[in-house]
Amino acid sequence: MQPAFHSPGSGRKPLRWLATCVLVSLIAGCDGSSSDDDDPLPVVPRSIDFCSLQAPVIIDDTENTVVTVFGRVFSAGVTDMSGVNDPDPAIIGSVGVGPDGSNPALDPGWSWANGQPNAGYGPGSPTYNPNHDEYRAGLMLPGPAGDYDFAFRFSGDAGATFTYCDGGMGTTDGYAPADAGQLTSSASLLFREYIDGSADNKAIEVFSASAGTVDLSACQVRIYANGSAAATAAVTLAGNLAPGDLHVVCKFGAGGIIAGACDTANADFDFDGNDAIELVCAGDTLDVIGEIGFDPVLEWAGGGAGTANETLRRDCLVTLGDSDGSDAFDPSAEWTSTGLVDLSNIGIDHCP
After folding, report:
1. What's the domain range around 229?
2. One-character DSSP codes across 74-98
3. Which of 46, 69, 203, 280 could pair with 195 in a Cys bridge, judged by C-beta atoms 3.0 to 4.6 Å apart?
C-alpha cells in the first residue's frame, strides 16, 4: 500500500506534515506560521534563593571609568545543574550605584547596568561554588566626585521584581547598606590642548569632564625633562573648575594671546617636545602626555602629530586621561595636530 499523501492543491494535509505539526504545535500554528504573531514562549519564573556582590567590594577610581563587577546567584534547580553557569532567560543580573548609605530597594537615586553570565566562571574561580552562577557587569563611576554605594541585584522573573545583594553575607542576612560595596569617585580632569611654541610660548589646557565643580588646589602639573623618571618641575594649580570648563597653565613670560588666556603662569612651566607632562590631583595621576622616564630625543610623533613645535588638540570623544605614564605614547591615538603652532583656540574649548 502506498503511504497516504495528498497533493498541495487537495486541501488535505500529508501525514508526515501532521506528525511534524504535533511536534511543533506548542510553539507554532499548524498552518505553518508561528502562533500569536511570533510571540516567544512565556518565561518561567525562577526563585532567587541567594545572591551576593562578589568582587570587588571597594572601588576607588576616576569619574567615567568603567570597572567590571561580579555577582553570584543561586536558584534551586537552575544554577546548580552543571557546575558552571546555567543561564536562564528569567534570571537577570545587574550592577548598580547610588547614594552612600542608601537602600537600593527604596531609593530612586540608584542607576543600574545589566550584566551577563561570566563565561570564565568554573572550578578555578576564586571562592568557587558549583551551585552558583556568576554574572559580570560594567559599572561606570558616577559624578560628581564623592562617595557612593554599589551593589548587585538579580531578578528571577525577567525584570519584574528584584532581589538586592550586598557584599557581606549576601541575602543570607538581608540587604544592609553598611555591607554595600564602597565606591569613591574622583574628579575627571584631563589635558585638552597642548602648545609647544618658541621661547616662552608654552601652554596647556586642563579640562574638567567632571559632573561637579573641582577644587584645583590639590592638583599639580609636573614636568619630566629629558627622560627623567622624577619630576623636574611642578606647578600647583589654584581656584575652582566648573564642569566643562578649562584652566590654562602657561609659562610666565608668555605673550599676547597666551598671556590673555592664562589662568596659572609659572616660570617653572618650561618644556620641550621630548619632556613628559603629568596631571596629578590628590596624589593620583589623571593624565600624561609623553612617556615618563623615556627620552624620545626630539619628540613623540606618529600619524602626523608630534609634541615638538606644534599645537595638539584632544579628540572630543576622549573623557578620561591616560593615567599610565609608563606606557608608550603615540599622540595621533587621541590628538590632532594643527601642523604648526596655532594659538587661535587657547582658552576656548574646541569641542562642541
Report:
1. 189-337
2. E-TTTTTSSSS----TT-EEEEEEE
3. 203
